[in-house]
């Protein structure tokens, strides 16, 4: 263990707290003065053993006003002097110095090392160290307050939680300039002043005598691993867009900051170019290094480095329980092919998912575009990307995609707590195949992206028993005023058979499914209950849903009281299932209003018994059930209302960086 004490200052004898970083080691000599630059907040280690005069056995160290001198020693090896400030010359004793205020002129502070013999009271010889103090600080919004404070603490690590530290960076994936063809991040220059608002501030502060920077230079740099993940612009002129010079990122790893003008503050704007992914944690470090310029062919000598860390903001999905802001609905033009055009428009919306990105200074929605384009490849890019509305996509390296890569197969739960662990932004739900079953699976590029966002850890469900293979065909979430604030709705063939048997006992066995639909064959309750194939198909489907029910209860911390079974029948088409009548869980949720596919169920006492059953389950929660006829427009095309609509929702009030991960 080392102990330290403060030597008497020539003008002020005080005990000082030791700074946290040792900057460099400087050797002093009795033959000629030594010179060093000291950076505020760091120490200079003084090598006093380089030229000890003959006969010297002890020393003392003193500094001029503003210089803090420390003696560091090991108590088990060295005895602290009593009264006098002379220390035994011992390799277990060292001297360090620091300063808190930048110098006014070069070499305006000094330290004297005095060497003493065995019996002499006067020093044998002395060594001088002349110091110039500078302040070099690279600062960002480390405390996530929305403001950049000078000389922030804990800058080199990024930590989660309400008391966490570390700045946030947005991927500049919107298109603020109307005339631009690409996202803002595609351009190596600033497109507009609105473009700057999406970027994070980074400020370099450098104080000290201007003359010192003739022999020293400041270099801003980024690692090879991070250089393609970010771009940095230096604000260096009158305020026109041309003044924002691209200085780091893309192919630029370092930038020498011109300090000749005496400017003490340089402003940089930082934009993200990549979201977190399998090969990118989302963490990016920037460094500024003070280099002593070599007057020979030797490389420049690093004196001090300051580092800041950003985390790229994740893409965040929004659940049904959040307030709707805007609804996107597919449509077709008059005179076009109704089935073909509507199907393509419906699929276009099914291949997008709305989310958002957020930093303390800015938030905007971002549409995630599925690689399963199916004829409308550029819809999200052309029609949705714009000012403060971003875009992201993922393309698999092998080029193959399946039904599971459409975003009806992507959902997110409301916030949940599971065995004491809180997920304040919910958990993403994706459909997949059973382990080792060899069935469909969402492409690795999408799965890697979703897992890498971290803040909504995905849950994989079993969905490739369905012809389309989407989780929205058997589950949905609706808001509720009690318990966890929501209910999970699950399609249930058992609930449907229970309802139909009840109506049969009440004498309504002849009531027919699909009554009132043109060119659609009806089937009575008696006939459905007697149909062994339909019964067998439904039993298989129920077993698949039950598997997911168990997974959802375990992964989302749900109980049976949190789940509502919605009556639904399915039929097998080959080895996979389709909804027998419009799939009621495939609904659109707009606050308390639910747009539910109209099931055209058996009419009992003048009302559809399926609709009445669903109303009895959901209306006590304060929800309004609106049944919409989508039979020919959606259902017969293997989709429902949720597939042909998409909802932009209000973001969470909870800040993702406050999560405890």
From TrEMBL:
Domain Protein-arginine deiminase (PAD) N-terminal as annotated: residue spans: 22-132
Domain Protein-arginine deiminase (PAD) central: 134-292
Catalytic activity: L-arginyl-[protein] + H2O = L-citrullyl-[protein] + NH4(+)
GO cellular component, one term: nucleus
Domain of life from the UniProt record: Eukaryota
Keyword field contains Ribonucleoprotein: no
Enzyme superclass (EC): hydrolase
Active-site residues, record numbering mapped to chain: 350, 470, 472, 643
CDD domains for the chain: PAD_N (cd04214)
Keywords, sorted A to Z: Calcium, Cytoplasm, Hydrolase
Protein name per UniProt: protein-arginine deiminase
Origin species: Mauremys mutica (yellowpond turtle)
